[in-house]
Design brief:
single chain; mainly alpha; 410 residues
């Protein structure tokens, strides 16, 4: 229901914004831009889905091998104490817990191409145990909250863009991004846990989170003592090596269990193809709404209004230059990435706004896209409170990004 109102709101606001601009300028070209945006956004949505088809077929095929080879159940046993507390409604040692572990691990390492298909498989498995097939279950909401918060250990893509655009120290945003995205994730998990009456003060939760914090502290120490370009290089290399290791590990596990690896892969790949086809309508709908909102000029009007209000309050407006990236991030990953690159081109990669745009880009995930993609894959229509809680986490991550930028670069 929430997505329904928001989708309608995109069109209503776009029409109002376009009408106001037409009355002021006397030109009706803005409506042409809106119409063009509907077609281009629909094309983009289909192309994204088409691009996902091969990736989904590959990874769901590998996941099926891992499932029959016993790898997924091993991961489930390993993470059962923690996930048993965060996802109390999932049956003990259910294979979906192992899949969740792999999804979170892939996200932490910045392996988006691996994380997305694994996440879609998680949603399918959660739907299998969901008693209300049209409504998001509590485990689905917790899983989505963690995914939408965008917790990433090594933001490889952002570092590489900074290298290409001439940043003196491309990886100087590493620590601020890490702290901002950690803030977003903590807020998301806390809000959902309070709503679902999950006790966070449990050693099964506190100990793993303590280990994660210790690991992050170690990464920060390594970051400070390593050349920035070398850090980006080694991070990319380690990510790729781990990815290859996972693929080979799944296949070897299947051979060890004496299963027909090829036929098992084909079985899972077929499921990946069906999933890719399922998400096309949902993805196109969301992207068209966002495209119309952008093309109407409503985004520019919103940014100008916020900047004027902040100036009226006598507050510093330097961070407002990164508002396009902030406002676009929950709506469109590619749009936010374009805004980030534009900010670095316009203000400079090492400018305050350039750094802030990068930190914002890495602080959260693309909430609307993630929700449309994941829930659309299992035909969930009632998403309950996940959108509002995810947007609160997004806001927390962005506020943290602004604070971190002032702290480290102000």
């Amino acid at each position: 229901m929430a997505l329904n109102y928001i989708w309608i709101g995109f069109f209503l606001v776009a029409v109002v914004a376009a009408t106001i601009q037409t009355l002021i300028t006397g030109e009706m070209s803005i409506f042409t831009d809106i119409v063009n945006a509907t077609f281009s956004s629909a094309k983009t949505g289909f192309e994204i889905s088409l691009g996902l088809t091969g990736i989904l077929a590959l990874w769901l095929g590998l996941m099926r091998i891992g499932e029959k080879g016993g790898v997924i159940s091993a991961f489930a046993r390993l993470t059962a104490p923690l996930f048993g507390k965060l996802f109390p409604e999932i049956p003990k040692n259910h294979p979906v817990i192992g899949s969740m572990f792999m999804n979170f691990s892939a996200n932490l390492l910045g392996l988006d191409n691996a994380a997305t298909p694994i996440g879609l498989n998680v949603m399918k498995e959660l739907q299998d145990i969901n008693p209300r097939k049209d409504t998001a279950s509590n485990p689905m909401i917790m899983f989505m909250a963690i995914n939408a918060s965008g917790l990433t250990l090594i933001p490889i893509t952002i570092l590489m863009y900074r290298v290409q655009l001439g940043a003196v120290n491309p990886a100087d945003v590493f620590i601020p991004i890490l702290l901002a995205t950690l803030t977003s994730t903590i807020v998301a998990v806390t809000f959902v846990s309070l709503r679902q009456r999950i006790k966070l003060y449990d050693k099964a939760i506190l100990i793993p989170f303590g280990i994660i914090l210790a690991f992050l502290t170690g990464m920060i120490v390594i970051f400070k003592n390593t050349d920035r370009e070398a850090l980006a290089y080694y991070a990319t290399a380690v990510s790729n090596i781990l990815l290859v290791a996972v693929i080979c590990g799944f296949i070897l596990a299947g051979v060890r269990k004496r299963i027909n690896v090829f036929d098992t892969f084909i079985e899972g790949a077929k499921e990946g193809f069906r999933t890719a086809v399922t998400i096309i309508p949902y993805l196109i709908a969301v992207l068209v709404g966002i495209g119309v909102f952008r093309a109407s000029g409503a985004m520019d009007l919103l940014i100008d209004g916020i900047k004027y209000f902040i100036a009226m309050c006598g507050l510093d407006t330097e961070w407002v230059g990164a508002l396009p990236t902030m406002l676009m991030k929950p709506l469109s990953g590619s749009g936010a990435r374009g805004m980030m690159i534009d900010s670095m081109n316009h203000y400079g990669a090492d400018s305050f706004v350039g750094r802030l745009s990068c930190i914002v880009q890495g602080s959260t995930d693309t909430t609307f896209y993630v929700i449309a993609l994941y829930f659309g894959s299992v035909a969930i229509k009632k998403i309950r409170y996940i959108l509002s809680y995810s947007l609160i986490a997004d806001l927390a991550g962005m506020i943290a990004a602004v604070f971190m930028t002032y702290f480290f670069s102000g």
